[in-house]
Amino acid sequence: MLHTATLLGLTPDRAYLWKPAGLPVFPPHDGVGTSLYAWWQAHPDFPAEGFPAGFEGGIAHRLDTATSGLVLVARNAGSLTALRERFASRALRKLYVFRSQVAPSVAGYSSTLIEVPIAHHPRSSRRMIVQDRPVKDHRGRWYPAWTRFTALEQPAATSENEGFLWQAEIRTGVMHQIRVHALHAGIPLCGDPLYGAGSEGPFLLHHAQMIFPEGASPVAPLGDGTEPRLVL
Questions:
Q1: Residues 24 and 32: beta-carbon distance below 8 Å
Q2: Which residues are known catalytic residues?
Q3: Is the domain 1-89 a CATH 3.30.2350.10 member?
């Protein structure tokens, strides 16, 4: 079982960290508190040079506190610039694993692509909504969002009560993108308090791997230490 942050891999330009569910990437209270950044700061491979605000320690992106898995870190300023350009150009394939109570046979497909734009809920700062009709009340602008859902091979121990494993591949990075697109696709995440649509069971959203044009990152194992069976 994995319970604490872990270094998954190291190259001259990048570090690949594993974040457990429940641990924020950055300290939640004015720089004070337990976080992945605090763990990385104490690690012997923590980069010596400085990085711009919001990317301290070279951390190139964030995961929600409840999300586990891979966090990509730049080890120098040039690497961070290159990674930010990759994110902006949608040149990275980001693969996640999640659990839903809806089986592929019930959903009616084993793979589907959702490209419905996402915006902030007009009255709740915690929620996002999809543009499922031409005119819909929302806050701010509509953000393009690309998510491909694919049913995964189920581990032998998985039962219907525990839910079914799905893969989400995203090329964009909108707030709560996978969770709100999964609800729109009819496969809401188990135990999701915002978008679960009453779905019970243990919550799982796990960032498993990033695929670059030149190769792939290490695969981040699930919390039980097993490697997810991804569809590439």
A1: no
A2: 64
A3: yes
Share of the chain above pLDDT 70, in %: 96
> Which one is the CATH code of 90-232: 3.40.50.2300, 3.30.2350.10, 3.40.50.10860, 3.40.50.300?
3.30.2350.10
- 231, 150 Cβ separation under 8 angstroms: yes
Which residues are bridge partners to 69 per DSSP?
19, 207
| pLDDT tens readout for residues 38-74 | 999 999 999 988 899 999 999 999 999 999 999 999 9
Q: Fold identical between 1-89 and 90-232?
A: yes
Alpha carbons 167 and 10: distance in angstroms, whole number = 25
C-beta atoms surrounding 4 within 10 Å: 9
Burial, 29: exposed, middle or buried (Cβ in 10 Å; 0-12, 13-18, 19+)? exposed
Q: What confidence tier does 35 reach under pLDDT thresholds 50, 70, 90? A: very high
The ranges assigned to domains in the chain are 1-89, 90-232
